[in-house]
Design goal:
This protein is of the alpha/beta class and 644 residues long. Strands 3-2-8-9-1-10 form a 6-stranded parallel beta sheet. Strand 4 and strand 5 form a beta hairpin. Helix 1 packs across helix 2, helix 6 runs parallel beside helix 8 and helix 12 runs antiparallel to helix 13. The relative contact order is 0.11.
């Protein structure tokens, strides 16, 4: 049952400005930097609206399920609907099935809208006349059956709102106020729906946005509302929230140097804010730029003397999972899911057939035999297209056993494979207290392994009721309990046992039975299964610890929204050319988009620190060091090689 909204206390200055804008029938944008308490302001405004307009219906939409839960925990009311953006859009359009079917068919048959294209086995684009079943929104896509997923939903919703004035009128009647949390991560199509398409209706509602353009670190987000602010029709007023409740003074000053939007933060005037000391004065904090000719990050950790064994106290932020994998102990799993050049060669052959030999019969042929057939009668140019690239050849020579497996596997099985790191590392958490989200992209093999390790953790943690609820092991006698203890201990101290051995052992002992989904995976994705199954289970245990937040490692993207006392940021681009920390410090000309993207991710990382921030850079140039001395202060730029 929904709890009533709390009677509002005296509103903050920013919340008063928002309410003034609402009274003036204006849409609004509340811009606030990191640690400014934007979610607090959002809850303030919701409470004020419910108190002033008790019959009004409010929709609050945000980016993740975790954010939904956070807002629901702070406030609940029967007139308030909190949901993710996708759930909100689907709930507003799902009952218009005739219009949806007509539009989905139209989109499928439009070659220009590639996300809706249906391709045949030979790669050609197919058209359809109609969809029999209802349009449904799921975690996967089957367009012929009318099943859409997240990306398709956004496109579909935007076109539905653009076409149907009645839909706009209904939504405006349902929700007099629509508040968008973390607006910068919202797709531009969603902003167009709210600020443009809803205006088709004669009814008017108020749209409010809460967020920070400097924290727009996802490429599919709108980023900022500058264009909408310039439009008279958007009726959009900006309100800036400049206080910072999280970071100490040194980090506030440093972060202000990174901002490019004119918003400069200052310490909170609330003496009880987390960044205030017991004397009512903001904590100074510490700020260090560490560098070395060595890539060994351990020398930075030794210098800092922080307790990196506690992931709630210290976090090491890396740009990519790949940069973490070796440190955290799951580099072979990451290699299989993210850098398998044999899989890349399979896709190369698939593309060659589509582009140059679409009539080639492939049914029933093994990959190796098909390659040899394709080579027959080909000139040098075509042979080069068929052969692996130099990078693929190097990988093949280092993984010949895997290549032999591929050559002896049916091409039809290999060509239908989809392998991506999201199937391995999806739903990474910052710490063990955070609940994982539903709808994980993990494949059925990784899900099965997670179930095994989850059961072990439940048992070891003394959560026996939950363990017995989800395990297949049955306890009837005291002897059964003793037997179970021995079996669990065997799954903890796995030694050199492989993943396959542990899957079989957990199955035989009734800890986790092999189900239909895993059997199907073994049969349909043998190439992938055999590679993973041959690895030590201890490597998966390392992956589990990382993904469940039991390690000090996290990626710079996944840390957004989190905060920790001590933060160490590793400035290493890896192989990702979307970012370049050298460009950021040298303000490289002609690289504005990369510099902007890098500046934002760096801003997000640095503002996670509640007390101490350190940045580690391997072998920076003198030009980089000049900028760091300006930003960090000369005394805070430390050459680790010169330390005794």
């Amino acid at each position: 049952m929904a709890t009533p909204a709390m009677k509002s206390k005296k509103l903050s200055y920013e919340a008063e400005q928002v309410m003034d804008a609402i009274t003036a029938k204006k849409n609004f944008l509340l811009s606030g930097g990191a640690g400014s308490g934007k979610t607090y302001s959002l809850v303030e405004v919701i409470n004020a609206l419910l108190e002033k307009y008790p019959l009004a219906k409010i929709a609050c939409i945000t980016y993740t399920n975790a954010a939904v839960r956070e807002i629901e925990e702070r406030i609940g009311h029967e007139n308030l609907r909190v949901s993710t953006i996708h759930d909100f859009l689907w709930d507003t359009i799902k009952h218009f099935q005739n219009e949806l079917k007509e539009l989905v068919v139209e989109l499928i048959n439009d070659e220009a809208i590639t996300s809706f294209n249906i391709t045949s086995a030979d790669g050609s684009i197919e058209t359809i006349d109609k969809i029999e079943d209802d349009i449904r929104y799921k975690e996967y896509v089957k367009l012929r059956e009318g099943i859409i997923s997240h990306d398709e939903l956004i496109i579909l919703a935007e076109k539905m709102y653009a076409r149907h004035k009645k839909l706009c009128r209904i939504v405006q009647n349902c929700y007099q106020y629509v508040l968008v949390d973390e607006y910068q991560d919202t797709d531009k199509n969603v902003v167009d729906i709210l600020l443009h398409h809803l205006n088709q209706s004669d009814n008017k509602n108020i749209i409010g946005f809460f967020g920070d353009s400097m924290q727009s670190i996802y490429d599919d987000g709108v980023g900022n509302l500058d264009l909408y602010l310039a439009e008279a029709s958007s009726n959009l007023a900006e309100i800036k929230k400049e206080q910072n409740r999280r970071n100490p003074q040194l980090i506030i000053d440093f972060a202000n140097n990174l901002r490019t939007d004119g918003l400069k933060q200052k310490p909170s005037d609330d003496i009880h804010a987390p960044n205030m000391g017991s004397n009512g004065i903001i904590k100074p904090g510490s700020l260090k730029f560490l560098y070395s000719a060595s890539e060994n990050i351990e020398i930075a950790k030794l210098y800092l003397k922080w307790n990196f064994s506690d992931p709630l106290i210290c976090k090491e932020l890396n740009l990519t999972h790949n940069l973490i994998a070796a440190k955290a102990g799951f580099k072979n799993l990451m290699k299989i899911y993210d850098s398998d050049q044999i899989y890349a060669y399979i896709k190369r052959i698939k593309k060659y057939i589509k582009d140059h030999a679409p009539d080639t019969p492939t049914a029933g042929k093994k990959f190796g035999d098909l390659i040899e057939e394709l080579k027959i009668g080909k000139d040098r140019k075509d042979l080069k297209r068929i052969e692996p690239t130099d990078g693929m050849k190097t990988y093949i020579s280092e993984n010949m056993d895997v290549y032999i497996l591929a050559l002896t596997t049916l091409f039809s099985e290999l060509s239908s494979l989809y392998i991506d790191k999201s199937q391995l590392i999806d739903d990474k958490k910052n710490d063990a207290s955070i609940e994982g989200r539903t709808g994980s992209n993990r494949d059925d093999l990784i899900k099965h392994l997670f179930k095994i390790q989850r059961n072990v953790h439940l048992y070891l943690g003394g959560n026996f009721n939950e363990f017995l609820r989800i395990t297949d092991f049955k306890i009837h006698t005291q002897k059964d309990k003793k037997n179970l203890k021995e079996k669990i201990e065997s799954l903890v101290a796995v030694g050199e046992k492989t993943i396959k051995q542990i899957i079989d052992e957990a199955n035989e002992n009734g800890i986790v039975k092999i189900d239909d989904r895993l059997i199907k995976f073994q049969q349909k994705k043998k190439y992938l299964y055999d590679q993973v199954a041959s690895l030590p289970f201890s490597e998966f245990q390392k992956l589990f610890d990382y993904l469940e937040g039991y390690t000090p490692f996290t990626t710079q993207h996944k840390t957004k929204g989190a905060e920790f006392p001590n933060v160490l940021v590793i400035l290493d681009n890896g192989d990702w050319n979307h970012y370049n920390f050298d460009y950021l410090f040298t303000e490289a000309e002609g690289k504005e988009s990369v510099v902007s993207r890098t500046r934002k991710i760096f801003y997000v990382c640095c503002t996670r620190a509640k007390e101490n921030l350190a940045v580690f850079y391997h072998q920076p140039s003198e030009q980089v060091l000049q900028k760091t001395r300006e930003w960090f202060g000369v005394s805070n730029v430390i050459n680790l090689d010169a330390q005794s």
